[in-house]
Amino acid sequence: MRHQIVAGNWKMNNNAEQTEDLLNALIEKLPDDAAAEIIVCPSFVNLSQAVQHLEFTNIAVAAQNMHEAASGAYTGEVSADMLKSIGVETVILGHSERRAYFGETDQSLAKKATTAIENDMRIIFCVGEELSERQNGIFEEVVQRQVRNGLFHLSEEAWPQIVIAYEPVWAIGTGETATPQQAGEMHAFIRNTVREKYGNDIAEALPILYGGSVKPDNAREIFSHPDVDGGLIGGASLKAEDFAKIAGAFSEHS
Ligand code: PGA
Fold first, then answer.
1. Which residue among 32, 97, 156, 254 sits deepest, i.e. has the most Cβ atoms within 10 Å of its Cβ?
2. How many C-beta neighbours within 10 Å does residue 72 have?
């Protein structure tokens, strides 16, 4: 059975007090026996707080981004070493909002991926096509390029540290989700792309998450495809009850 993950991407939400409240509510509401690993991704400012607060729980903490350099004159940026030093072992890279609003490219993301692996961090690497690319029928090509350009320079040894999140841009924060069939087909396509380069064992072990308007009432259906190994949840991860239901939906399915 592949490793399963339900991760909450809080984006730029929650100050210190709200972080405290949400963490407390999550500890109370999340199922103890969830089949999936549960991860929360607060802002950089609240990562330390979250790590300490969740120390004796089974909820892990990940960062939403990091810089590719080890250190230096990069005002406003955060390094892998800084994250590791406060106990953060996982980082989201290449979220579509980073690509769209902060100029992240396949090339810069490839460097970030190298740095994360060199620092022995786990990567949740996001890929996904825009609406026009889906409508024009080039969505597989776009996603394949993102996977190849961002990750295919890495050695086989790096792959146990990699998780891919398929997040069609048109489904993020829009209330529109990919159908279970669309998600399942793309996940299988991504897995095949990885299989062609790295072989069957690595491809079969790779967790591929779906992201984009996952809610309590659609989670079970989306997670039901055998190639969907969990979810990256935005809006619904800000409400403990909804996030807990999504995590629960996954456990029931598996
Ligand atoms: P959403 O965001 O669940 O609010 O659509 C998903 C994401 O951006 O990771």
1. 97
2. 8
Nearest residue to 237 (alpha-carbon basis) of 92, 25, 95, 36: 25
Measure the CA–CA gap between 134 and 37, rounded to whole angstroms.
31
- What's the distance, CA 147 to chain centroid? 14
Look at ligand 1, atom 9, and give the residue with the nearest C-alpha: 234
214 Cα: distance to centroid of ligand 1 (angstroms) = 7
Of the residues 9, 209, 242, which should be mutated to test ligand 1's pocket, given the most ligand atoms within 8 Å of the CB?
Answer: 9
Query: What pTM value is reported for the model?
Result: 0.97
CA dihedral 42, 46, 50, 51 (to 10 degrees): 110
Task: Identify the structural domains of the chain with CATH numbers, from first to last.
Answer: 5-251 (3.20.20.70)
Q: What is the pLDDT of residues 216-237, one digit of tens each?
A: 999 999 999 999 999 999 999 9
The string of pLDDT tens digits covering residues 32-42 is 878 899 999 99
Q: What phi, psi does 58 have (nearest 5°)?
A: -100, 20
Give me the chain's average pLDDT, please: 95
Measure the N-to-C terminal CA separation of the chain; round to a whole number of Å: 9
Mean pLDDT by 10 residues, the chain (254 residues): 95 98 97 90 98 96 98 98 98 98 97 98 98 95 98 98 97 89 96 98 98 95 94 98 92 49
Ligand 1 pocket, residues with Cβ under 6 angstroms: 9, 167, 172-173, 211-214, 232-236
Tell me which residues are annotated as active site. 95, 167
DSSP-derived secondary structure for 191-223: HHHHHHHH-HHHHHH--EEEESS--TTTHHHHH
Distance CA 71, CA 57 (A): 31
